[in-house]
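Whiteboard transcription, Tuesday session. T.W. wrote the C-alpha cells on the left side:
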C-alpha cells in the first residue's frame, strides 16, 4: 500500500505493508536515530515525534504514519545538539544509546508544558530506560537546559 507523510519536513510517498512496523520503515528511510531495543514499547529507544507528540515506533504499524508530521533526531539537529550538550555536561552520556529517546521526549515535553516540575519531567522520561546512569543526571541536565543555563 502507498502512504504519504511528512518526515523531518519533507513529503514522503512510499510503499509499505499493513504488517510493517514504523520503526523499520523509518530506518529504511535513513532515520538511524530511531533504534530497536525492547520491541515492547518499554524502553523508549524507538521514540519519534508524531504531530509534535512523542510516540513509540516499535509497536506502531507503518501505515499509521500516513498523513502525519513525523520528526526524528535527523530533522531536529540543532535542538538535539543543544540538549545532548547538557546531557553530556552532567555525565549522562556514558554510552549514549538511550540519548535519542530522551532527547525526543524533552522536545515533546517542551511542546506540551511550560516550566515543568521535576515530577512532570520525570513523567516524560518514565518510558526511557538507561542502563549506564541513574536518572538524577538526566533530570539535572534537563532542568539546566530548560532554564537556559549555558554553563556546559
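and on the right, the sequence the group agreed on:
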Amino acid at each position: 500500500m502507498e502512504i504519504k507523510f511528512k518526515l523531518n519536513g519533507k513529503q514522503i510517498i512510499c510503499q509499505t505493508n499493513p504488517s510493517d512496523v514504523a520503526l523499520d520503515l523509518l530506518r529504511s528511510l535513513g532515520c538511524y536515530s530511531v533504534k530497536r531495543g525492547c520491541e515492547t514499547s518499554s524502553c523508549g529507544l524507538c521514540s519519534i515525534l508524531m504531530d509534535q507528540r512523542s510516540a513509540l515506533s516499535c509497536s506502531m504499524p507503518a501505515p499509521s504514519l500516513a498523513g502525519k508530521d513525523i520528526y526524528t533526531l535527523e530533522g531536529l539537529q540543532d535542538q538535539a545538539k543543544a540538549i545532548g550538550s547538557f546531557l553530556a555536561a552532567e555525565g549522562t552520556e556514558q554510552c549514549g544509546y538511550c540519548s535519542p529517546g530522551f532527547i525526543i521526549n524533552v522536545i515533546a515535553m517542551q511542546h506540551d508544558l511550560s516550566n515543568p516540575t521535576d515530577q512532570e519531567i520525570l513523567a516524560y522520561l518514565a518510558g526511557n530506560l538507561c542502563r549506564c546512569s541513574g536518572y538524577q543526571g538526566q533530570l539535572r541536565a534537563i532542568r539546566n537546559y530548560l532554564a537556559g543555563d549555558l554553563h556546559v
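Someone added at the bottom: The chain has a mean pLDDT of 89.
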